[in-house]
Amino acid sequence: MGRLAVNGVSKIYGESDASSSVVALRDVTFEVPDNHFCSILGHSGCGKTTLLNIAAGFERATTGAVMVDGVSIDLPGWRNTMIFQDYALFPWMNVFQNIVFGLEMKEVARKEREDITRHYIGLVGLEAFETKFPHQLSGGMRQRVAIARALAVQPQLLLMDEPFAALDAQNRSFMQDELVRIWQREPKTVLLVTHSIDEAIKLSDCIAVMTSRPGSVKEFVRVDLPRPRDEDDAPYIALKRKLRELIRDDFVSR
Amino acid sequence: MDAEPIDKGAKTSPSRPVDARQRVATMSGLETAPVEKTEPGVVPSFGKWFRQQLLRILLLLPNFILLIVLLAVWQFASKVWIPSIDPYMAVLMPAPTTIAVTAAGMIVSGELFYHLMASLKREAVAFLFAACAIPLGIAMGWWRLAYNQVNPVMEILRPIPPLAWIPLSILWFGIGDEQNEFIIFLGIFFPILINTIVGVKNIDPLLIRAARSLGAPERKLLVRIVFIGALPQIITGVRIGLGVGWMALVAAELVGANSGLGFIINDARSMLRTDTIIVGMLAIGIVGLSIDTAILALGRRLLPWSLAMRK
Lengths: 254, 311
Hints:
The structure holds 2 protein chains of 2 kinds.
Chain A: E1 4-13, E2 22-32, E3 37-41, H1 48-56, E4 63-68, E5 71-72, E6 82-83, H2 95-105, H3 110-123, H4 139-152, E7 157-161, H5 169-185, E8 189-194, H6 197-203, E9 206-211, E10 216-222, H7 234-253
Parallel strand pairs in A: 3-8, 3-9, 6-7, 7-8
Antiparallel strand pairs in A: 1-2, 1-4, 4-5, 9-10
Chain B: H1 16-27, H2 46-60, H3 65-85, H4 96-109, H5 111-130, H6 133-142, H7 144-157, H8 166-173, H9 177-201, H10 205-213, H11 218-256, H12 261-270, H13 274-302, H14 304-309
Helix pairs in contact in B: 4-13, 5-9, 5-11, 5-12, 6-7, 6-9, 8-9, 9-11, 10-11, 11-12, 11-13, 12-13
C-alpha cells in the first residue's frame, strides 16, 4: 500500500501576486507506483527539498496536493515518515528506544512493538548495539538506526532527504548497497532527494529530474536495469550520460 | 544544518563518551579537584582504587600550603597577638581551634543538625513549590502566546531581589516557616524558569520534526522530546536556583525565624558567641557547596548524553 501521486504541486513563498514572491515549485506532477523507489534529482535550490517537506507534511503546497493511495497529505505522521540527512536520532534514547519510539506513538502493544523493533534492528545489522546511545555510534550506524526507526512504523511512503550526504565516500557507497538490500527485503514506496546522479541510478526505479527557477520536473526517467547495478555496464553509462545532460542544460540555461 | 561528527573516534567508542565527559568537566571550571582518571564503566579493584585516591590526595597537598599558612597566622593572631593588645578584643576573633571545639560540641549535642535540618526543610519545601517553574517554562518556551503574555509579568518581578520581599512577606505570613519558604521560593523560581525557557528554545528543531514525522502527538512530543531535551538546561536552572535560594534562606532566617542556620548566627551575635557565628557560617558554606555538587553529580549520572553532545 502506498501509491504516490504528486498532483500539480506549486509552492510560492510570500504573497502570490507580490513582486517579492518566490516560486519554489511550479506544477510538479508525477506518479510513483506502489513499492517503487523514486529519486528526485536536481541541483541545490531546485526545490526538491521543498517538495519533500510538502510530502512529509512539514509544509503546505500553495496549490495541488501530494496524495498517498488517493488521500492527501496535510500533516506529518507515521504514514509519510522521513529520514533526515543528519539522522535526527534522539540523543537521550539508545538504539532500541529510538527505534521503538514511533511504535509507542502508534500505541502498538508492548510485546508486538518489541518484536517489530528487534526485527528491524536485525534487518539493519545492529543486534550488538541495541543499548548503545547515538553519540557512541559512527555516522553509518546512526543512519542505520534512522532507517530502522522509519521502517518500524510501517510507513506507506518513506521520504529520505539526502540520507547519505554526511557520510564519507566509502561509507556512502556501502550504505547505498545496504539500502537496496533492505528495500528489496521489505519493499516500500520511497521518495529520495539527491543531487548525486550515481546515487539516483543505483537506487531508483524512477527518477524525477528537476530544474530550478521555478522548480519543476523536466523529465521523468524510468530505470529498468536489474539490481545490483554495475556502474560499468553500458546501459548504466548511457543513462548516466543522459541524466548528466539533462542537468547540465539546466545549469547552462540559468 | 549543523554537521555531525562523522566516524571520528568511533572505533574507540567505549572510551569516547568518558573522554568527552572529562573534558567538559574540566572546562566547566566547576571542579576544584582534578577529574578522576578512572573510567566509571570499569570497576577497578579496591586496592588499585585506594592507591589512586591516596596518590590524588598527595598530589593535591601542595595546593593547601597557603590555606595552612593562613590558618596558622589566624591561630597566632587570635591566641597570642590580639590578647596581648587587648584581652577583651580577643573574643571578636576566635581561634581556629576554638571554632573546632565549638563545632564539635554543636555536632555532638545535635544542635547543629537540628538547625541544619530546619534550613534544609525550608529549602526543600520552597523547591517543591518553585518546581512549577518547569511546566510554566516549557509552556512559555513552546507556545508564543504563553510567552508573550507571561513574560512581561515575569520581567517586572524578576529584577526584584528576594530580600526586598522580606518586609512585605513578614506582614503577609508573619515570622516562621511560611515567610522563609516564600523568600526562598522567589530565589529558586526565576533561575529555573529562565533556564527552562532557554532549554526548550534551544532544542534541535530537527528532533521535533523527527518526532512529529514518527507520529508523535503534541502531548507526547512535549513530554518525551521537549521536556527531556530541555532537561540539561533545566538542571542547570535548578542548580543556580538552589544556590540563590540558599543565600536567600539565610537572609530570611536572619530576620524572621527561630530555627535554622541563619537563626544560629544571628542568635549567637546577641550573645557575642563569635565562635558559634563562624561555625554557622562554615556550615552554610559547606552545605551550599554540597547541594550544588550533588545536583551536578546527579545530572552527570542521569544525562550522560547531554555531556557527550556538547563539544
